[in-house]
Amino acid sequence: MWGSALIANQQKRRQRQRYHKTDEKDVQAKIWACIYTAKAIAGVDHRRLQDLLPLLLQHNGLPTIYIPRTAFDVPHRSM
Q: Using N-to-C axis directions, what is the helix angle for 46-59 and 2-42, rounded to 10°?
């Protein structure tokens, strides 16, 4: 009797772990889709990209973020 309950609990735990991994992959795919969509719409306009990305994330039920303008600056290389 106790053995079957233990096996059932282990199976439930495995299912939860599988769902968590799937959910994590789904969220990651949604984030990348939002990034690529925002880049396609904004083009080279970094200000527009800065506004679009949080909007697209929120629209897809993901947490919104603030992106500082400096994140889009091209780093200067010194030779």
A: 150
* pTM, two decimal places: 0.58
Three-state DSSP class for residue 68 = coil
State how far the Cα of 32 lies from the Cα of 36, in Å rounded to an integer: 6
pLDDT (tens digit, 9 = 90+) per residue, 8-33?
Answer: 666 666 666 555 555 888 888 888 99
Q: Pseudo-torsion of CA 45, 59, 22, 36, nearest 10°?
A: -20
The Cα–Cα gap between 53 and 41 comes to: 10
Helix %, strand %, coil % of the chain (to 5):
75, 0, 25
